[in-house]
Design a protein that fits this description.
Blueprint: E1 9-17, E2 20-27, E3 30-34, E4 36-41, E5 53-56, E6 66-69, E7 91-93, E8 96-100, E9 116-120, H1 122-125, H2 129-143, E10 148-150, H3 160-165, E11 170-172, H4 174-181, E12 184-185, E13 192-193, H5 217-240, H6 244-252, H7 256-268, H8 270-275, E14 285-286, H9 296-307, E15 317-322, H10 333-343, E16 351-357, E17 361-364, E18 376-377, H11 386-402, E19 407-410, H12 414-424, E20 428-429, H13 438-452, H14 460-476, H15 478-484, E21 490-494, E22 497-502, E23 505-510, E24 517-519, H16 521-529, E25 534-537, E26 545-547, E27 551-554, E28 563-568, E29 571-578, H17 582-587, E30 592-599
Parallel strand pairs: 4-5, 4-11, 5-6, 8-9, 9-10, 14-18, 15-16, 15-19, 19-20, 25-28
Antiparallel strand pairs: 1-2, 2-3, 7-8, 12-13, 16-17, 21-22, 22-23, 23-24, 25-27, 26-30, 28-29, 29-30
Helix pairs in contact: 2-7, 4-5, 5-6, 9-11, 10-13, 11-12, 14-15
The structure holds zinc ion (ZN).
């Protein structure tokens, strides 16, 4: 039995998605999964056999289960928000710590880490979405990565995925109990009263009843616990696939109160989500709803294109093209046709192709192999939502302020060309109806031929160097890109497998799989001298990976899958790929922080 003191506690995170994480929690010598459900246990309502963790309020434990005894502070976990301010205070009891959620959403500074933090009083602020989300986000930020965050009293099968996406590690069965009292059955699609349930459920409990109205309190409770558990299994699966947000979108989409919380999270806490979102994922991103515009990786892509990216310097003419269902775009039939028309004009290297699309806005051709541009799907109806159009307009306007062209040509369908002209003024429009019609393609070729004739010929190599610098600017920002890809460097290989040399030393290469720049040791030195993405480690021998306990300091801007450089004994030591974000690798005491590629 754990009365406050949990003894040795260790968190092993195996997969992450948003603030949601999946792995193991070691308490004393037992291992339990996270995220998980604490099943309340008492003489009257024993916890189900499948429970891994039980919580007791009457001091009663259960053989073979991890038991947390909440009896010393049971009245402190769920209480009315209107209690006097003196009641809202931090309570520490061994390895448990109660932090009071509150109407201001201000979570006090927490010095001690490595414990289970209970965010008390959430039930009473649940309906006030902004305050609720703010409390959870702040609590997650305050307790850090190496602690467990427990949100008591609020979980049901429908909101569970959102709670986990917000960074909750543990929930409990309180609401399942309270709902069972009211005759409400849990479902991930929403709760249903037993009176209306009919034949809605075929779980082992419900199957025993011809009419759900005959179900007793304990049957309903057991159904609810089963639904919670099933949803938790799904959540763990979706986290492991990097698709938790997709599950959250389906769960919140028919509930105004959940959608409200989800939108507030997206609008007001982008930084919180972005820090926890890898640079690269292997799963296809399904951008189905209006909310999909707010995927943190999509917002980050747009932000970097506007704020970090620099167009290939030798390009003078911007050609705007429609997107294709197939990704990368250049592998589609339509883009094959565009390409041959563009090639037909002669001096192609002064032309910069850019794809106009939703939810990414605009995608420069050189970035089409980078996640999420290489791996997203949208429903295509030929009609655009107002939000999408506004986003594209805003992005184009901001992009063109930082990237100048002599001429702009739109090979987009009429509605998008009109939108472009609203932002950029009059442009040459070459698409007549269908962009792949013979007439449209010939128009494109003829107009470009005329446009490029005034420019000196630009060589393929010069263009490749500029393209690589543009990719670097998206990845590291303009300043680093300038140092990494210098004028006069040499490019070897066949696109997209390219290697960059400076004075015969390899600086970096373009990774076909990642679409991004991979650094050699020489390239790592450049990043190191620019003071970017540095992970400072203890003076220990490293084989293959840097483990989290060895990390002393790390650039908080590091994201999972970023290129990072290792600093040891004050000096440059090697380069690798981040497997955790910067703050996480400092906090956590277990797991691979960096996979080394080269070291001295
Ligand atoms: Zn059932």
């Amino acid at each position: 039995m754990l009365k406050g003191y949990l003894g040795r506690m260790r968190i092993r995170v195996a997969c992450r998605d948003g603030a949601g994480r999946c792995g193991d929690l070691e308490i004393k010598d037992r291992m339990v999964s996270i995220p998980n459900i604490i099943y309340l246990h008492s003489k009257r309502f024993p916890s189900p056999d499948f429970a891994e963790i039980i919580g007791t309020l009457d001091g009663r434990g259960k053989e073979g289960k991890v038991t947390i005894d909440f009896s010393p502070f049971s009245e402190r976990i769920i209480y009315p928000a209107s209690m006097p301010p003196s009641f809202h205070r931090l309570i520490e009891e061994g390895d448990l710590c109660i932090i009071p959620s509150n109407l201001e959403g201000e979570i006090p500074d927490i010095r001690l880490r490595r414990r289970i933090f209970i965010l008390a009083n959430l039930v009473s602020i649940y309906e006030r979405s902004r305050i609720f989300v703010k409390n959870l986000v702040e609590a997650r930020e305050r307790v850090g990565y190496n602690s467990i965050l427990y949100a008591p009293g609020v979980a049901d099968a429908k909101n569970l995925s959102l709670l986990i996406y917000l960074g909750v590690d543990l929930v409990d069965s309180t609401k399942a109990l309270v709902s069972a009292r009211k005759g409400m059955l849990f479902f991930p699609e929403g709760n249903v009263s037993v009176e209306d349930a009919g034949k809605i459920c075929s779980c082992p409990i419900c199957e025993k009843f011809e009419d759900p109205e005959d179900m007793g309190f304990e049957d309903i409770l057991l159904h609810n616990l089963l639904m919670l558990r099933r949803e938790m299994d799904r959540i763990r699966f979706f986290i492991s696939k990097g698709r938790l947000r997709e599950l959250v979108e389906t769960r919140v989409s028919n509930s105004p109160e959940l959608l409200e919380k989800f939108r507030i999270l997206n609008d007001e806490f982008y930084g919180f989500l972005e820090e926890r979102t890898p640079i690269i994922k292997k799963e296809r991103l399904m951008a189905c709803l209006r909310e999909s515009l707010d995927y943190p990786e999509i917002k980050r892509f747009r932000k970097r294109v506007i704020e970090w990216y620099e167009k290939p310097r030798c390009t003078k003419i911007l050609v705007l093209l429609p997107c294709s269902a197939k990704k990368p775009y250049s592998q589609s039939k339509s883009h094959g046709m565009f390409k041959s028309s563009i090639k037909g004009c002669g001096n192609t290297n002064v032309i910069h192709e850019m794809i106009v699309t939703s939810p990414l806005g605009i995608v420069p051709r050189e970035l089409e192999m980078i996640y999420p541009a290489n791996l997203y799907d949208i429903p295509v109806t030929g009609r655009w939502f107002g939000d999408e159009l506004e986003m594209i307009k805003d992005m184009l306007a901001r992009y063109i302020k930082r990237n100048r062209y002599d001429m702009i040509l739109s090979h987009l369908p009429d509605d998008l060309s009109a939108l472009v002209e609203e932002v950029l003024g009059e442009v040459v429009v070459t698409c007549k109806g269908n962009p792949t019609s013979k007439e449209s393609l010939e128009n494109l070729r003829r107009n470009l031929k005329e446009m490029v004739s005034g420019y000196e010929h630009v060589s393929r190599e010069e263009r490749l160097i500029d393209d690589l610098r543009s990719i670097s600017s998206y990845q590291f920002g303009r300043e680093v890109a300038e140092k990494l890809i210098m004028d006069g460097c040499e490019v070897k290989g066949k696109y997209p497998s390219l290697r960059v040399f400076w004075k015969r030393k390899q600086i970096c290469s373009l990774s076909k799989e990642r679409g991004l720049i991979s650094l050699s040791l020489e390239g790592g030195r450049i990043l190191f001298s620019e003071n970017r993405n540095i992970v400072e480690i203890e003076d220990v021998d490293i084989k293959g990976s840097v483990l989290a306990p060895c990390v002393k300091r790390a650039d908080p801007c590091i994201r999972i899958e970023d290129e990072v450089v290792i600093k040891r004994e004050g000096r440059f030591y090697g380069v690798g790929i981040a497997r955790m974000n910067g703050r996480e690798m400092v906090d956590l005491e277990y797991g691979e922080a960096v996979r080394l590629r080269h070291h001295l």
